[in-house]
Amino acid sequence: MPQEYRQILKFVDQPGYTPDLDCYLRHGGYETLKKALALPPRTLPDGRTLSGPEQLREEVRLSGLRGRGGAGFSCGLKWSFVDRKSGKPIYLICNADESEPGTFKDRQIIYKDPHQMLEGMILACYANDVHLAYIYIRGEFIEGARILNRALQEARAAHYLGRNILGSGYDLEIHVHRGAGAYICGEETGLIESLEGKRAYPRIKPPYFPAVLGLYNCPTIVNNVETLCAVKHIVAMGGAEYAKIGTPNNTGTRIVCISGTVRKPGYYEIETGKVTLGELILDPAFGGGLREGRTLQAIIPGGSSAKVFKAGERFKIKRKGPDGKETEAELGVLDLPYDFDTIIAAGSMSGSGAIIVLDDSVDIVEALANIAEFYAHESCGQCTPCREGSLWMAKALRRLTHGGGRKTDADYLARIADNIPGGRTICAFGEACSWPVQSFVAKFKDQFVARGAADEARRLANTPNAESPTGKTNA
Amino acid sequence: MPDAPNIQPPAAPVETLKVKVDGREVEVPRFMPDPLSGKPVPTTMIQACELAQVTVPHYCYHPKLPVSGNCRMCLVEFGTPALGPDRKPLLNPDGSVKIAKSPRPAIACATPISPGMEIYTNTPAVKQMREGVLEFLLINHPLDCPICDQAGECKLQEYSVDYGQAESRFVEPKVHKPKRVDLGPRIVLDDERCILCTRCIRFTRDVVGDDALGIVNRGGYNTLTAYPGRPFDNNYTLNTVDICPVGALTSKDFRFQMRVWFLKETKSLCTSCATGCNILIGSREEKIYRYVPRQNDAVNSCWMCDAGRLNYQWIGREDRLTEVRGPTPELRGWSAVLRELTRVLAAAPTGSVAIVASARQTNEELYLLSKLGRKLGALTDSVPRLGEADRLLVHADRNPNSQGARLTGIAGEPLGANLARIAEGIRGGTIRTLIVFGEDVTRHGIGADLLSKLEHLVVSDILPNATTALAHYLLPGCAHAEKRGTFTNAKGRVQKFMKAVEARGDARAEWDFLLELLSGLTGEKRWAGIEALFNLMAAEVPAFRGLEWKALGDAGVSVPL
User: Fold this and answer.
1) Can you list the residues of chain A whose pLDDT is less than 50?
2) Nearest by CB: B169 against A182, A380, A412
3) Quick check: pTM over 0.90?
4) Three-class SS of residue A412?
């Protein structure tokens, strides 16, 4: 029987668990920080000595933690890229912009257990010699920003933050910065630009790798809320211990957000890779299955930008067994273990952990039109393929869902989408806006063609002299 | 920075590396100067390609601006030497270095090169990416080339030839954006033509230091605009028209005046201050339509100020002096007037002649005037003209050739110091003949009352003024656009300019009739043309020693001051 594995959400939603400091302390809060700040230098067998912060970084490396914001990049590796010799300050930013449609995990932490996130953040800052850090929170989380500011005040008053934290000599200040409501502010370099007070135009890499040229052109670490919470648990239990949770290369827990046409939409914390997509959607412990009389049509496995899976799809997945041997197995979509690598191997991504379930009541063309509309609205407009392509696709889908469709629109959409991703754009938004179109059109082509054909037939019946497929000429 | 012609600075060893561009190996510097700070920064793919004489199409990249990387037109494929587990390069069976091709393309404008890198600018994938970008840029473009001023020098048009499709498959309604936006006193913006490359934004922010332009709205509705409630009116705004790769930013002055393919382009210089910005004069049928800056990294980079750029209309003024005149109505035509003038000057006692030259004349003319002054034993000077300098190009010295006036010896020390003495000489009656070139001396301490005391007032000028009105001998001269010559800028750079248009009426290049006058006075034979004159001057004027007309090239040569 698959079960939730609550580590980050251990106390969240328990009766009487409140977001204030007292409650957090009653549940063992800030004990990990106390221990970490008191870590003495450790001498390794090879004679090297690791300082306290270096030991924390080593634990995070050992834990195999992968970023929970969407890309799933190794946290230890990200930290190792930080330019520590530049002489410039190192900044850490907590990315609390949670904007990917279908994702609502970080807000559970922010609203219900802010001190856990702060403790993880303080630990990450201490590990990386950061003395000034920011929480970039999406503008719509008005209450979340209030809660965080209150938590910061409490932490400051209790000397978990500020000058000489708990007598350790370590100084750290954290500020909350509210975004103004733009998806692209979740992209780490767009976020940095926004934090600097500019338009959130993502930066070109090279040269602006945040680890070298980040906030104010200083080395900067940007970590997701859930990632920073995981850091707390890694430090508490040790990296090697943490790596035993989940599956190899997909360690720890993940908070999965299940939405769409399931009986029990919500957030569920699981051991990564120990639960399949099917279990997450159908098991009573998670999504609880579809409504009466409905059949599964599609699954978006990692936020609205992830490529869609079609019900009944089968994949040949290469997997490494515990003995390190690679085996290939054919798996149905519902049998895919929910982790980073398997979902990527199946051609999509687990992204921000948002599973959107579409049953047969959903109009696939309308669903894609909705997604495309979102991405056209959220494209920052900086680089050509994304700026023009996202709006073009949205307009075509608007036409297709408003009676102006053509049989050829499926191919038309695919050809637009093919010109956007694959490194053609400055940031991953190019992929985010084109992957849904590519995958929906490829996997549900019959529905798109049928929609267009029906429109054409109707137009032909209504206007016998129609010359142009759209009923009007185009300049 | 002036670099002396004969003194080579000790060549610092340039660190180079080898890359391959489309299969051809080139050795390029590892670092190139940053366009703004001048500090060495890693050489990028697009620079390496440029050095390999392979042009990578681009819109947003500009060699003199910070890189933005937004247009995506310069995407190329590339590979780097494949490394084994020991971090050593792997070899192919034939012994050559194995190249690991990157699965993703890179923008050539921002990606630094590395040793052994191979850049592929011409693969089917690269071509397909360029076609994709071009199609995206065109779907919402108004395609109003027939009424667009940029037509003929538009990057959208140029790349459409290589990467465009004959037919649009875009069947959606286009995005509509503001038209005819009055950005400032000299600039009109058409937002529908704008491709959002941000060159103008980066130029005015990073080069001028006036953060006046920006983009508002999201995604496909991105719109270029000026800061609300503030006109875009710094003295460099028209450069944004030059660097705009499309017809979004247009010059109010040039808008709808002439199709650019009709314009003859002549290499010339701006005369509005001592910086000596290099320009191209755009003219058609003896009429000047515009100045645009011409790149010279030793002088003006790619820029010029708005004031200098628009300072050309006077050349075509209706009241230009077009008739050569002597003291009596019967004396007409250049040969008669010059013959009479030669007679008068030859008869003038030493010390009775003074010359006021203009630092707007060319080096050659000032040299000839100086020679004339020495022959006549004349007191000579030139007129200083000062304004306010800025931190970019505008020089406080508003004469284009004060250095020339100094170096040829015509000017007082400092410039203008002798003007009062000349006035005194006229007042006291010792100076009976005054030769004035290109200045209205009534505005520089030698008033009409003094001029009327003269026996002979010889004036050469272009436009009428209080001095020309009193002239006994009036010798109509040429604007720089109507002749050839050289100026020496404030930093000692000797630069030449070419003739763009014919002068009207009798007007004649000053150096030309000065030569005739001098040969009449001295009996020496007159020289053939401007090249020979320049070379003669170079032989005689110490500061110009070693210079040759031909060797000046398009960018000029610096002399030590």
Assistant:
1) 471-475
2) A412
3) yes
4) helix
